[in-house]
Structure to design on (708 residues):
């Protein structure tokens, strides 16, 4: 990717008394999320920058690219960033503009922000100027450069005597530059100068990924909202559709290349160096080394990879570095091999020249909700799903690996993948595309299985619910036959019904199932713990031990509390509010909290162990009873700090009995800018409408069955 060169402004640090730069409060908006932050108006920067934590808080997304920035003394620095689009509005709301900004860690470091409303009375020429109210967060979160010149120009300027602060009215409001202290105070400058950008993008990526995961789980949209399809996704879909073939119970697809004929440098030496690193790591753990070697031997035996002869004449090729990931919690593959398609050589990686493709998997919320519809639950996963799908011959040279077993002294052999590879960015898209096309192809022959694949499968995990035991047995039969026609196999079957499990071969059941002792295990289904025996959901969380209470550690812990349905909404909303307070306090990611924030965090963590006592029924209705009527009841409310909604189901049966259950809940923190309670209540009502509409679609109910 081509780099863009930009120039950043530097300012001299001032000890005790400092020169305030042109900062102004602005509102950043992305969809229904908004934040009020400080922006620095910088006439000496050709680009606009935004702090990465703000971008993550707003849910802004962009593709990683490299940028070169000119700094002091003719030097240049290159770093990775994500360009994002965000709407910038004046606090008054009179001016609005969508800008493109690069993400950085701290755009102006620890530069303080001057609240000129506190200092203007010291200066006669500033007394009557209405400076915008300063946000709570006391740092600069955005630097607006000359690429947004329409936001920087002076509408009016107010000057005092020489050396006094100068006020400027811009489209975003009044700003001021100068020493905020009175004319009798001496300004002391040091000779230390610094530039306002940050290079540590690896940490930013981790934070962005954690926040993205947290907010994606919390997000709920109406089923009527049509997601915007990017041009790149359309191109990827078209390429894959044209390349798809089906022969001898196996599918092959082409890689969705950004350009038709990819050209990459020869990265053999880089791959060899990474292999040596992996070998050193395996040498320290013989057990892992044995598992790793066995895994690659199986790849060779099953034909997933093939050895390439030394006289190979492929003009363009790519070698994938690989390394182990340990997964001790897994029943089957405890050591997984990851192939690093993001590894760069000469500034490029395989993933850089491949379209990722659109997200085709079902929404996690919908899959879990469908799992709660009916009394008999059935769960399984597809073994080695990626490796059961072939790639086209012309794409194979770009998926090579180096391997020499346990003999690190000889030259490594070269192997070439024949299948979709775990680690390539397009692989999830390719796997879902093939699986869904296969279900549609055989829908008439296997209707139940096809519906499960299309509506109740997330990546390689299928989890559905049916009305009775006979239908559970039939679903197992159909899924097994349907997948076998694509060369795939379902394994690790689990159900709350012993009759269904008895029809499944022992080797295909989940390992802990013991029907002789009538034991059904607790399993993690799409991240949620399910006791199959009691047919209830639960949570397994431990309070952290000795831990520094920082914003980073707090975020890491709350992001692991996986609750996509919202069973823990009253508990998790407290964490969200705390996170917002940390953000407003301007805490750095690794800065320890002061009281009372630290005390609130400790209290929240201390309650984590209480979650293990929770038991939430999986099924929304009572097994064996004839249903008379079904209704949904939605409640929404708001306070000064948060708003949210919860939906309950109410089943009336023909014998006169009634059962109610929580279906789902969603909460939001209130915007950081002041918002009236009626408006927050309206936002809660909108959340309730979206949530209930989504539930109605998944549970296949009518809108008339919902009450607010």
């Amino acid at each position: 990717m081509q780099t863009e060169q930009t120039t950043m402004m530097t300012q001299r640090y001032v000890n005790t008394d400092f020169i305030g730069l042109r900062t102004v409060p602005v509102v950043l908006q992305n969809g229904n999320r908004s934040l009020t932050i400080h922006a620095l108006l910088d006439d000496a920067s050709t680009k606009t920058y935004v702090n990465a934590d703000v971008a993550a808080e707003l849910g802004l997304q962009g593709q990683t690219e490299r940028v070169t920035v000119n700094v002091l003394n003719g030097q240049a620095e290159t770093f990775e960033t994500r360009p994002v689009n965000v709407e910038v509005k004046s606090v008054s709301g009179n001016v609005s503009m969508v800008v493109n900004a690069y993400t950085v860690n701290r755009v102006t470091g620890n530069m303080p922000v001057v609240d000129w409303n506190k200092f203007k009375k010291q200066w006669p020429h500033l007394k009557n100027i209405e400076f915008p109210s300063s946000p709570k967060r006391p740092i600069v979160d955005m630097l607006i450069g000359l690429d947004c010149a329409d936001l920087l120009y002076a509408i009016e300027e107010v000057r005092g005597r020489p050396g006094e602060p100068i006020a400027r009215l811009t489209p975003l409001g009044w700003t001021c530059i100068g020493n905020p202290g009175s004319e009798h105070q001496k300004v002391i400058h040091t000779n230390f100068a610094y530039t306002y950008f940050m290079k540590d993008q690896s940490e930013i990526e981790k934070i962005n990924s954690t926040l993205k995961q947290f907010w994606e789980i919390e997000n709920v949209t109406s089923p009527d909202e049509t997601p915007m399809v990017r041009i790149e996704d359309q191109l990827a879909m078209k390429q894959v559709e044209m390349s798809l073939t089906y022969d001898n119970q196996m599918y092959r697809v082409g890689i969705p290349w950004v350009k038709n004929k990819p050209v990459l440098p020869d990265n053999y030496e880089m791959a060899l160096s990474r292999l040596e690193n992996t070998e050193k790591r395996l040498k320290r753990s013989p057990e892992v080394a044995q598992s790793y070697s066995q895994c690659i031997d199986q790849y060779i035996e099953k034909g997933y990879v093939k050895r390439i002869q030394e006289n190979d004449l492929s003009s363009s090729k790519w070698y994938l570095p690989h390394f182990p990931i340990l997964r001790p919690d897994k029943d089957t593959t405890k050591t997984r091999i990851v192939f690093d398609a993001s590894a760069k050589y000469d500034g490029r990686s395989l993933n850089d020249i491949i379209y990722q493709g659109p997200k085709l998997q079902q929404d996690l919320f919908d899959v879990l909700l469908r799992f709660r519809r009916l009394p008999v639950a059935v769960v399984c996963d597809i073994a080695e799903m990626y490796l059961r799908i072939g790639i086209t011959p012309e794409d194979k040279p770009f998926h090579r690996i180096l391997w020499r077993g346990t003999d690190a002294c000889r030259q490594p052999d070269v192997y070439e993948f024949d299948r979709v590879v775990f680690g390539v960015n397009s692989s999830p898209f390719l796997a879902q595309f093939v699986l869904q096309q296969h279900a549609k192809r055989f829908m008439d022959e296997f209707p139940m299985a096809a519906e499960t694949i299309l509506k109740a499968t997330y990546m390689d995990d299928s989890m559905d619910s049916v009305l009775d035991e006979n239908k559970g047995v039939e679903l197992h039969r159909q899924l097994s036959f349907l997948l076998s026609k694509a060369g795939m196999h379902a394994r690790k079957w689990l159900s709350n019904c012993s009759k269904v499990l008895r029809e499944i071969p022992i080797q295909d059941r989940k390992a802990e199932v013991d029907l002789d002792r009538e034991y059904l295990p607790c399993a993690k289904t799409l991240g949620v713990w399910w006791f199959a025996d009691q047919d209830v959901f639960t949570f397994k969380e431990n309070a952290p031990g000795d831990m520094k209470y920082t914003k980073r550690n707090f975020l890491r812990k709350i992001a692991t509390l996986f609750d996509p349905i919202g069973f823990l909404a009253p508990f998790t909303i407290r964490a969200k509010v705390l996170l917002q307070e940390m953000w407003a306090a301007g805490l750095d990611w690794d800065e320890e909290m002061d009281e009372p924030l630290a005390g609130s965090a400790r209290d929240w963590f201390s309650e984590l162990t209480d979650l293990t006592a929770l038991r939430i029924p999986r099924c929304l209705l009572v097994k064996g009873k004839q249903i008379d009527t079904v209704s949904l009841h939605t409640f929404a409310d708001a306070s000064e700090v948060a708003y949210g909604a919860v939906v309950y189901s109410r089943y009336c049966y023909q014998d006169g009995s009634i059962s109610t259950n929580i279906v789902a809940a969603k909460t939001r923190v209130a915007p950081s800018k002041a918002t009236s309670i009626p408006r927050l209540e309206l936002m809660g009502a909108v959340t309730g409408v979206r949530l209930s509409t989504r539930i109605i679609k998944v549970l296949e109910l009518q809108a008339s069955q919902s009450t607010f």
About this structure: The chain is about 25% helix and 25% strand.
